[in-house]
Amino acid sequence: MCGRYATTRSEADLSLLFDATSVAEAPGPSWNVAPTDPVPLVRMSQRHDGRVLDTARWGLVPPWADDPRAGARMINARAETVATSRAFASSFQRRRCLVPADGWFEWVRDGRSKRAFYLTPRDSSVLAFAGIWTMWREQLLTCSVLTTAALGELAEVHDRMPLILPRERWPQWLAGGGDAPALLEPMSPAELAAIEVRPVRPDVGNVRNNGPHLLTAPEPVTAAEVTLF
């Protein structure tokens, strides 16, 4: 996973889709989420006795970090090591979350240039990335998205992908504890087949660009224009 995704559903829609109570102002739709951006997540809350829709900064900041900028390097946690990593293990056991998304972006090198692709459900349903969260110094909620080895057609675009959880796995994931291998199972072949790989405009590579136009098919460009990306 290259560190960009889209999440555009409203606060009301996400609350309904995830059966969660909103407890923070939603960051608003983004077609080009980048590291350290504010993002919506769903987690369990003892205070609210159930699921809450919250807002966190993307990039988990470990408790021992002196500077929250350390989170920029920790936007992803590998499924293979998340249960034993010093930075992630505690959150994996006790502070798991769902990160709502419409789809994510990957880039494929083609000679000197790169081609951008958007991976998204064919039926436009919401994706739930497996995530973990923590509170840095009791003032900053941060999160990471788990990644796993890409399978099937998706592996032709990138060797990693987000760990995506179908709805029936949400309760177990959010509950905390549990058996790590079962929690970290990859998508089934049928679930993988439901993901479309779509070429999109190269200007998604610039974090300053945002809007639904980024999800449209790329226009013909010259080789010189593409290598600028």
TrEMBL record:
EC number(s) from the headed UniProt entry: 3.4.-.-
Keywords: Covalent protein-DNA linkage, DNA damage, DNA-binding, Hydrolase, Lyase, Protease
GO biological process terms, semicolon-separated: protein-DNA covalent cross-linking repair; proteolysis
One Pfam entry name: SRAP
GO molecular function: lyase activity; peptidase activity; single-stranded DNA binding
Signal sequence segment: none
Family: Belongs to the SOS response-associated peptidase family.
Name of the featured protein: Abasic site processing protein
Organism: Actinoplanes auranticolor
